[in-house]
Amino acid sequence: MSDEFKNTATRRRRVPARQAGGDSADPSASSLYVQSVEKAMKVLTAFDGTKRQLSLSEIASLTGFDMSATQRFTYTLSALGYLLKDADSRKYELSPRLLDFTYHYLTSNDLVSRATPYLQQLGSETEEATNLTVLDDTDIVFVLRIVSRNVFNAHVITGSRLPAYCTAPGLAILATFDDGDIDDILSRSNLVPYTASTVYQPRKIKERIAQIRKQGYAHTEDEYFVSDISTAAAITNARGRGIGAVNIAVARSRWKADRDERRVADLVISTASAISTRRRVE
């Protein structure tokens, strides 16, 4: 497995300290919070893709549970069909049953179903990879990806997550938020330079967000992947808040700087606007 794939598909999901625009109270302090469910989820999220199989002791180390608790949780999850145990290595791995959740999410999600025909049309028109992403805590998650014969990065798949602060879809969504929510998300983000071109300083990020608000789209070049150029526009709800983003990703070798940014920007803006409008009228 390449390092590039690990960076995109295996960014560890963190429990958010606060959802943007939401309640800042610690949910685990509520009497409704079930600790055993949290622990079971910790076992599942220990399998973050860096290793296909984990031993009982490795799971215990990653979760912080003692061996007895780890054994009980892995046994239960195996009995339910969500973990598989290799008879030879005695190690555990995720089972295909977990894909049921992905399937049910994709087939029941209103945004995905509404955006699909628009992204298919956009991909056919441009012959480039088109994506639908949503914000999850400080990351964007790819929930729909229409690939083309010119796809630049085959390692980015449905479910991959990338940091919002240095990706065009993430910046497009952030630009629709109020400044307080942006500050909160940036304060909880791991702001690091992934390439020599990454903009990761909070002040500069907020300056570019101000520019995105004026022009209506976000544009990044070489900021997470070298030679990757991405242009995105936010899909908004009736209040104008970003609930997702449409983006087109193009390899630098195919990019014509003197004409492509405006052309691609117009396409993602019109597509995102059509999806946003359709959501409001239906």
From TrEMBL:
Region of interest (Disordered), residue spans: 1-29
Top-rank lineage group of the source organism: Bacteria
Swiss-Prot/TrEMBL keywords: DNA-binding, Transcription, Transcription regulation
HTH iclR-type domain location: 34-96
Positions with biased composition (Low complexity): 20-29
Biological processes, Gene Ontology terms: negative regulation of DNA-templated transcription
Claim: Glycoprotein is one of the keywords in the record: no
Coiled coil, from the record: none
SMART domains: HTH_ICLR
GO molecular function, one term: DNA-binding transcription factor activity
Limits of the IclR-ED domain: 97-282
Pfam families: HTH_IclR, IclR_C
UniProt-listed Gene3D superfamilies: 3.30.450.40, Winged helix-like DNA-binding domain superfamily/Winged helix DNA-binding domain
InterPro entries in the cross-refs: GAF-like_dom_sf, HTH_MetabolicPath_Reg, Tscrpt_reg_IclR_C, Tscrpt_reg_IclR_N, WH-like_DNA-bd_sf, WH_DNA-bd_sf
Protein name, as recorded: IclR family transcriptional regulator
